[in-house]
Write a structure and sequence with these properties.
Rossmann fold, 6 helices, binds glycinamide ribonucleotide, alpha/beta, 9 strands, seven-stranded mixed sheet, globular
């Protein structure tokens, strides 16, 4: 089976990335992480990629005269690895129009969208007092966590949960969901009709 190349974008610890790397050691999974991009140097995510022998690049907003220049550079860095699609796995920057125009991007988010979009989803869900939250895998569009939903899983909030304890429990399901979705997208392809994503 030929392996579908993907580029994974990270900002932090990269446990989602690690799950994809681990899944890829089984050739039947059908996915090859062709490169890992980060928005800052020195992330554990980048170190995980290097440990697995995967090429990495860093594209930092502060290194460019404008956000538009950063967007164009990020798109070019990604394109150099010719991915079938891009996975935003804990990448904490909003992607720009050039990157989104050139690449299909799949994002994973630690809440049940459309509830609690943005960078503090777990904190916001706890503060609101929800009893159930979860994780969402979706296609990225120009909005903040507004793209068509591919998959979701629910997680119960426990009375004594902290942001960290709840996020860790969400991430257990999030890793399984992301590995499953990325594998199916790669092996089976997908179509988008309006807001409906179909994996045949
Ligand atoms: C994940 O929970 C991901 O959904 C979240 O960051 C975490 C990354 O974990 N992303 C966002 O909140 C984006 N809005 P990791 O660094 O261990 O893979």
């Amino acid at each position: 089976m030929s392996l579908t190349p993907i580029v994974v974008l990270v900002s932090g610890t990269g446990s989602l990335l690690q799950a994809l790397i681990d899944a890829g050691t089984d050739l039947g999974y059908g996915v090859r992480v062709a490169a890992v991009g980060a928005d800052r140097p020195g992330t554990l995510g980048q170190a995980r990629a290097e440990a697995a022998g995967i090429p990495t690049f860093v594209c930092r907003v502060a290194d460019f005269p404008s956000r538009a220049d950063w967007d164009a550079a990020l798109a070019q860095n990604i394109a150099a690895h010719a991915p079938a699609f891009v996975v935003s796995a804990g990448f904490m920057k909003l992607l720009g129009p050039v990157t989104l125009g050139q690449h299909t991007v799949v994002n994973t988010h630690p809440a049940l969208l459309p509830s609690f979009p943005g960078a503090h989803a777990v904190r916001d869900a706890l503060a609101y007092g929800v009893r159930v939250t979860g994780t969402t895998c979706h296609l990225v569009d120009a909005g903040v966590d507004t793209g068509p939903i591919i998959e979701q899983h629910a997680v119960a909030v426990e009375p004594d949960d902290t942001e960290d304890s709840l996020h860790e429990r969400i991430k257990v399901l999030e890793r399984l969901m992301l590995v499953d979705v990325v594998g199916r997208l790669a092996r089976q392809g997908f179509t988008v009709t309006g807001r409906k994503v179909t994996i045949p």
